[in-house]
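Extended Data, panel c. Modelled sequence:
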Amino acid sequence: MKIVYGLMAQNGDAQELLWDLGFWESEETAKEYLNAEMANTRGITVEPITINDAIPISPEEMEEEKMVACSLCGIEYNREDVNMTDYDEDVCVNCEPEYRNNPNLHVI
């Protein structure tokens, strides 16, 4: 979860998010925008908004992730696509059904 800041307008009994104006990383920058661009308006406040961050790790960390080679077919996969815990070998998702039926397959 991540907190960003947006502008809210009072609309009757509820507040309405002015989503088309954007979001800010800090409350201070949102207030600076409000004071600079909307100085003559009333009833608009800066409020924290909790969002679900789709990517929990930074793109720099994602690039550093190592690929893992399947012990059976030798093809490199993302770590999530290789079962490294349930078997003695590293088995990819493509080889896993056959390996489950015959665990004596030869490793390359």
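The radius of gyration is 25 Å. This feature is highlighted in the accompanying rendering.
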